[in-house]
Amino acid sequence: MSVLSVSEFDDMAVDKNGNVVPIANGAPTNVQVITLSGSSTAISTAFNSKTRFVRLCATADCHFVFDDSPTATTSHEVLGAGLVEYRGIDPENMGNKIAARTTA
């Protein structure tokens, strides 16, 4: 079974000098998993209102899209199997979800 893991984060790390470092600070606030198939599947719960970025990691090549009612198609962006992608979540546009499907 192939999946897309969607980990939500609300904060970035800070170094000893107080500079923001572009890595997650601590554990994710929520993790949702999409089972990938040839049809679009969306996460069941909208992102938390405090979520500022997500980490995506898939076990198979997949197309993905963000929207309030997303439907992923083969024309959407591709995430390769085993790769990790970080995406910012616009706090003014909460309620967003992600949908994904396999590339085949």
* Helix/strand order, N-terminal first: EEEEEEEEEE
Strand arrangement within the widest β-sheet reads: 4-1-6-9
Please indicate the percent range of residues in DSSP E strands (runs of 2 or more). Answer: over 45%
Query: Mind describing the biggest β-sheet?
Result: 4 strands, antiparallel
- Note the total helix count: 0
How many angstroms does the end-to-end distance come to?
Answer: 14 Å
Low-confidence stretches: none
List how many beta strands DSSP finds. 10
Number of domains: 1
Structural class: mainly beta
Helix content: under 10%
Radius of gyration (Å) = 14 Å
**Taking all residues together, what is the mean pLDDT?**
93
Looking at the structure, what is the overall shape? globular
Write up what this structure looks like.
By secondary structure, this protein is an all-beta fold. It has one domain (3-102). Helices cover 0% and strands 47% of the residues. The protein is built from no helices and ten strands. The strands form three sheets. The protein has a four-stranded antiparallel beta sheet, with no helix packed on it. The chain has a four-stranded antiparallel beta sheet with strand order 5-10-7-8, with no helix packed on it. Strand 2 (12-14) and strand 3 form a beta hairpin. The chain is globular and about 45 Å long. The model has no long low-confidence stretch (mean pLDDT 93).
Overview features:
10 strands, 104 residues, 0% helix, four-stranded antiparallel beta sheet, single chain, 47% strand, mainly beta, globular
